């Protein structure tokens, strides 16, 4: 079953401003080009707690799950 | 459009700390309770709160609630209502211990008690010395609190409607509140939530400012809905600012950077704080630094192509010091300013942090408005708690760690009042008017049909820039007057926004347009209330109301010791007295005095 892009886009709204700012850039520059598989990986990553997600994006914490690695890389450098 | 109807004993809008605490009270009392939330509850902005929650437990130093009450009244610059402040400070221990019993992982002392740490503005013995009053769970207090409360709500069978956006308050011809309309994002369908009681716990609206520490979700939905339905907004001129947010982003640069030797510079590279605070310089208090920065920018000495920020310079510190002592700041600066602070200074600007005003409530969580000669007449069926509400415990300025306390105490209190009213039969399920959903349907229809309209993003940006320039941390009469006209113009444009995407399912553009309707109400309330208040008090500091012997700190109690009430329909302002009497007859009022630290 395909994932609704609008739903994933909404899930990029986070509790922390830091993440909102990173995702705003990401949504602008990369989101529309994601493949279905990448979208599924992103949807999975977005289930993380905000503090953990921010720590992975800013590099303070290693990526916990191989499935998230590509998305974390894109978020770090968008 | 077909409108489904759902019926509950109580509907709560917002699932941050206040909403979850209120919901718990209702669900545990057996009331059929719905919680509507735009995002999953544990992704509410309460997550961002780090400092802790204030309670005079006295675990680490001697303490009592009288001292906490004094600090809070003084912090509020005497604009806080002393009945509500007494209530909050007396209830603090109870709600914190309760939270501990729900599983909140507070930091501990060696002997197993909740560890407490000092925090700005909190003192022992009426301002004599710092006190250890803040209870924290490492630097994730808000996060831990939300998880504890959410899990407890799941146990109590609270029914969550996740990714639903409340649209409008439903009131009958008597003004009683009968519930809300709401949009389910997954389907685009509108529903009526018909209820005996409606509690708003929607948080603040810090996104009205261009530079804000608030997450994007903080769009003042409850405040906007209340204003549109005729409820006045209280004390909206009072917003807490932090001096050093990254320009253009809002992410906070901690005061610790200046503590480590960081220097603020203007476009000429001048260390301008030497002129404003010759002794403390860059380490002067938040408000002094913010005012100095604003003056530099307003007088044309700001930096960058738009001369709209100043620079925080730590390039004179060794890279080792920066990497060792300020690693998080380096990451933030690189990520959000595109600047490595080892090599170049960080662009910073005073940044909006917290909304002191909101929907007027009493200490029981009831929404109160002027009616039939009573300035605090309760609106039947309507309650509010947390940052969206104005109880008023923060008055003109909030103390750190009192915000988490506010949402626990008044979330619970609103819940208790609803349960009590429910049990005594005072809360009837009143019949819905025929046109209950019409306002919301008309808003949606306008968005669907709008041609040649305004771009949502551009209008929001114009609102944010107008607020930042005209009603920022340091305020000027001419800028406020001009701002009041400008913001009305922006509001007129917000009424004709257009979205390209007309789809029903997960239409985030539509949600953003609807959020703007709420933000703009808050922006108007703020600008117009601020323009009218011709004194300086707490966070509202005017250039033309300076510190004089007659009016210390620019505060004018003879004329302005009163709460502002702003009405959306005609931008009318009214005022009501501040309650200077504590709740209990045997508690002495905190007498008016100059606020000095």
Q: Strand portion of chain B, in percent?
A: 15-25%
Question: What number of domains of chain A?
Answer: 1
Number of DSSP strands of chain A?
0
The CATH topology of chain A is what?
DNA polymerase, domain 1
How many beta-strand runs of chain B? 22
Overall pLDDT confidence of chain A: 94
What is the rounded Rg of chain A?
Answer: 11 Å
The percent range for strand residues of chain A is: under 5%
- On the 0 to 100 scale, the average pLDDT of chain B is 95
Overall shape of chain B: globular
Query: How far is the N terminus from the C terminus of chain B?
Result: 59 Å
Figure out the total of helices of chain B.
16
- Termini Cα gap of chain A: 28 Å
Number of helices of chain A: 5
Largest interface: A-B, 23 and 34 residues
Write down the CATH class of chain A.
Mainly Alpha
Helix content range of chain B: 25-40%
Supply the helix-strand structural class of chain A.
Answer: mainly alpha
CATH-defined superfamily of chain A? Flavinator of succinate dehydrogenase
Task: Provide a brief overview of the structure.
In chain A, 59% of the residues lie in helices and 0% in strands. With 78 residues, chain A is an all-alpha fold. The model of chain A has no long low-confidence stretch (mean pLDDT 94).
Characterization of this structure:
The complex is a heterodimer of chains A (78) and B (597). Chain A is mainly alpha-helical and 78 residues long. Chain A contains five helices and no strands. The model of chain A has no long low-confidence stretch (mean pLDDT 94). With 597 residues, chain B is of the alpha/beta class. Chain B contains 16 helices and 22 strands. In chain B, strands 1, 2, 6, 7, 8, 9, 16 and 17 form an eight-stranded mixed beta sheet that branches. Chain B has a four-stranded antiparallel beta sheet with strand order 11-14-13-12. The longest helix of chain B is centred in the last third of the chain and has 25 residues. Chains A and B meet through α1 and α2 of A and α10 of B.
């Amino acid at each position: 079953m395909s994932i609704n892009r609008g739903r994933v886009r909404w899930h990029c709204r986070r509790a922390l401003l830091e993440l909102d700012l990173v995702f705003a850039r990401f949504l602008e520059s990369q989101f529309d080009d994601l493949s279905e598989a990448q979208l599924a990986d992103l949807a999975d990553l977005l289930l993380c707690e905000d503090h953990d997600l921010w720590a992975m994006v800013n590099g303070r914490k290693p990526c916990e799950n191989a499935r998230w690695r590509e998305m974390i890389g894109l978020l770090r450098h968008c | 459009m077909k409108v489904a109807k759902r019926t509950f004993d109580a509907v709560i809008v917002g699932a941050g700390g206040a909403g979850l605490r209120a919901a718990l009270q209702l669900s545990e009392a057996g009331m059929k309770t719905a919680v509507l939330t735009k995002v999953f509850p544990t992704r509410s902005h309460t997550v961002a709160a780090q400092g802790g929650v204030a309670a005079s437990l006295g675990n680490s130093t001697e303490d009592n609630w009288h001292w906490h009450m004094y600090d809070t009244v003084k912090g509020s610059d005497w604009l806080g209502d002393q009945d509500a402040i007494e209530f909050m400070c007396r209830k603090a221990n109870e709600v914190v211990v309760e939270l501990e019993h729900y599983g909140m992982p507070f930091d501990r002392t060696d002997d197993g008690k909740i560890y407490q740490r000092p925090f700005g503005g909190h003192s022992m013995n009426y301002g004599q010395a710092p006190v250890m009053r803040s209870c924290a769970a490492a630097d994730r207090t808000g996060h831990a609190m939300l998880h504890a409360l959410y899990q407890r709500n799941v146990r109590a069978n609270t029914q969550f409607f996740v990714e639903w956006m409340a649209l409008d308050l439903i009131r009958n011809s008597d003004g009683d509140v009968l519930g809300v309309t709401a949009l389910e994002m997954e389907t685009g369908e509108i529903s009526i939530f018909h209820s005996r009681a409606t509690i708003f716990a929607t948080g603040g609206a810090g996104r009205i400012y261009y530079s804000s520490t608030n997450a994007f979700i903080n769009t003042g939905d409850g405040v906007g809905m209340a204003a549109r339905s005729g409820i006045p907004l209280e004390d909206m001129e009072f917003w807490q600012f932090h001096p050093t947010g990254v320009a253009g982003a809002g992410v906070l640069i901690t005061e610790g950077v200046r503590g480590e030797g960081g220097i603020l510079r203007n476009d000429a590279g001048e260390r301008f704080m030497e002129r404003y605070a010759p002794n403390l310089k860059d380490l002067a208090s938040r408000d002094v630094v913010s005012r100095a920065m604003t003056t530099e920018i307003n007088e044309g000495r700001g930096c960058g192509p738009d001369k709209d920020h100043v620079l925080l310079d730590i390039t004179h510190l060794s890279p080792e010091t920066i990497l060792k002592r300020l690693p998080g700041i380096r990451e933030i600066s690189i990520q959000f300013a595109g600047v490595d602070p080892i090599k170049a200074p960080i662009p910073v600007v005073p940044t909006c942090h917290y909304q002191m005003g909101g929907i007027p409530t009493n200490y029981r969580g009831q929404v109160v408005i002027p009616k039939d000669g009573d300035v605090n007449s309760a609106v039947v069926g309507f309650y509010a708690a947390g940052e969206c509400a104005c109880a008023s415990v923060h008055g003109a300025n909030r103390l750190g760690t009192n915000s988490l306390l506010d949402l626990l105490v008044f979330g619970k209190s609103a819940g208790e009042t609803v349960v009590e009213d429910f049990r005594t039969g005072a809360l009837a399920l009143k019949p819905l008017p025929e046109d209950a959903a019409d306002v919301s349907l008309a808003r949606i229809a306008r968005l669907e049909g709008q041609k040649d309209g305004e771009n949502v993003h551009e209008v929001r940006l114009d609102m944010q820039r107008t607020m930042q320039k005209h009603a920022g941390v340091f305020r000027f009469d001419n800028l406020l007057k001009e701002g009041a006209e400008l913001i009305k113009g922006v509001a007129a444009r917000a009424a004709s926004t257009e979205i390209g995407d007309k789809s029903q399912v997960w239409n985030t553009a539509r949600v953003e347009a609807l959020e703007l309707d709420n933000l703009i109400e808050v922006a108007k309330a703020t600008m117009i209330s601020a323009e009218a208040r011709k004194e300086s008090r707490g966070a509202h500091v005017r250039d033309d109301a300076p510190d004089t012997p007659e009016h210390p700190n620019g505060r004018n109690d003879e004329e302005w010791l009163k709460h502002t009430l702003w009405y959306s329909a005609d931008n009318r302002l009214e005022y009501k007295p501040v309650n200077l009497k504590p709740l209990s007859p045997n508690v002495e009022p905190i007498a008016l005095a100059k606020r000095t630290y």
